[in-house]
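Readers of this paper often ask what the protein records in our data store actually look like. This encoding replaces a full spatial description with a residue-level series of whole-number codes. For reference, a complete record is included directly beneath this paragraph.
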Amino acid sequence: MNPIPRNWQPEWGLVPLRLVVGAVFLAHGGQKLFVFGLAGTSDIMGKIGIPIPMVAAAVVIATELLGGLAIVLGGLTRVAATLLAIDMAVAILAARLQGGFFTPYGYEFELTLFGACLSLAALGAGGVSLDALRDRGSHA
């Protein structure tokens, strides 16, 4: 039996994290846009006290959709992950903190995404990504 070579880790190690986290943000951004709509998302944000809720809703929808896609593809990962971490910090503070830790009303889900995004912001996308492809091309 051949053991898995160690050099696969820098190339592939972050791919599962990127795919799952990116897919979650794509799904939630899509839900906000296609199920609730901009007006519905804005209404929810206004009810929890987010200022300028229509603008905030548009920013959150764009951040979750574009940021989720960027993380899945591994392009501009550090920027996207940083913006999504901020998104989750605001969600925790504005909407979930009073619900305690555990779901369905608590912040454990958002906190998990916050931690994952901080890790991606710190580590980048890994070797199998558009970021790595761009970096290899700039060194050629």
Q: What stands out?
A: The chain has six helices and no strands.
